[in-house]
Specification:
heterodimer, A: Peptide Deformylase, 19% helix, globular, B: alpha+beta, Alpha-Beta Plaits, 2 domains, four-stranded antiparallel sheet
């Protein structure tokens, strides 16, 4: 196991599109273990995507179970994940381990339906909401080279203008 | 000597103010930091952090030709350059009411007494000219906790005759 280096913006690899995983083998298991160790080592870390450590593969780990009073699915390994349905939207303030010392407001869907393969390659389906749904949307963006700073909304968009 | 200056600039709005001012700063060796730029009632306003390896007098001289040509009022203060230690808001307060004098004074006095440090305040007037309403959004740090602000607003609502709608929402920032 090893803690991997987290890339920070403007590293160009954070803007690249990750490739699907086709082989669920021992190498993948080792990488997932390292990615998870990297996530656990980050203070308050609740999610990580493989491109954040320079591996352009469609792998995300999420675990929001440390947050009190929210619905969640615990530790999830999401491989080749896809969001199939979005519902509602909410504004939230986000930061990112790959974009240090900056936070900003981002609109995300409140509820999502997600499908993803697990570590063994079996496709799973999840219904998520709130904080967990936001975390998943943030991490899945990394697989398409999108950072939260690509999705910032203006402060003034909160106002109800004529 | 500090290298950061806070530049305040106001002038009648026209196309190209930002481009002309920032080009002059760039060509004069400046590096820009945080900025707030906004058109307000026919004026264009800029508040801008500028890193400049020289004196206030030299920076003023750098901008003088453009200030004269575009009729801009410019004010420059030395600053500390604290961007890296800036504060994050943890509460948002939305206020709206029929427009009348004193809304901002009343609401912000209550909030200040309960420990709110305002980081950002925007307000506007909407509605018809004969029936205007006032709307304001505040973001800040609840230095004595959000509960203290909620309690202060609740007490005020119970004792006040005013029909000012005030909604307080905690802002949670998550680093993913």
């Amino acid at each position: 196991m090893a803690i991997l280096e987290i890339l920070t913006y403007p590293d160009p690899r954070l803007k690249m599109i990750a490739e699907p995983i086709t082989e669920f083998n021992a190498d993948l298991a080792v990488f997932i273990a390292n990615l998870e160790e990297t996530l656990r080592a980050a203070p308050g870390g609740v999610g990580i995507a493989a491109p954040q450590v320079g591996i352009l593969q469609r792998i995300v780990i999420i675990d929001v179970s440390s947050k009190p009073k929210i619905k969640h699915h615990g530790r999830l390994i999401l491989i080749n994940p896809e969001i199939n349905h979005w519902k509602g939207f909410a504004i939230g303030r986000e930061g990112c381990m790959s974009v240090p010392d900056y936070t900003g407001k981002v609109v995300r869907a409140e509820q999502i339906e997600l499908s993803a393969q697990d570590e063994s390659g079996t496709r799973q389906h999840y219904q998520m909401e709130g904080y967990e749904a936001r975390a998943v949307q943030h991490e899945l963006d990394h697989l398409d080279g999108i950072l939260f700073i690509d999705r910032l909304i203006s402060r003034r968009h909160d106002l109800f203008h004529r | 000597m500090t290298q950061w200056f806070m530049l305040t600039l106001v002038g009648k709005d026209r196309i190209g103010i930002v481009a002309r001012v920032t080009t002059a700063l760039y060509q004069g060796g400046c590096h820009l930091g945080e900025a707030s730029m906004l058109r307000m009632d026919g004026n264009f306003t800029i508040m801008l952090m500028v890193h400049f390896p020289g004196t206030k007098a030299a920076l003023t001289a750098l901008l003088a030709p453009i200030a004269d040509e575009l009729q801009l009022h410019i004010h420059i203060d030395p600053s500390v350059g604290e961007q890296t230690t800036r504060q994050e808001p943890n509460v948002q307060i939305s206020v709206h009411s029929a427009d009348r004098a004193g809304i901002v004074a009343q609401v912000t006095s209550i909030l200040a007494a309960a420990g709110l440090n305002i980081l950002d305040l925007e307000s506007d007037i909407g509605g018809h000219a004969n029936n205007p309403f006032y709307i304001m959004q505040i973001e800040g740090v609840a230095t004595r906790g959000i509960e203290a602000l909620q309690q202060a607003l609740q007490t005020w609502h119970q004792t006040s005759e005013q029909t000012i709608e005030v909604r307080l929402t905690p802002i949670t920032t998550t680093i993913f």
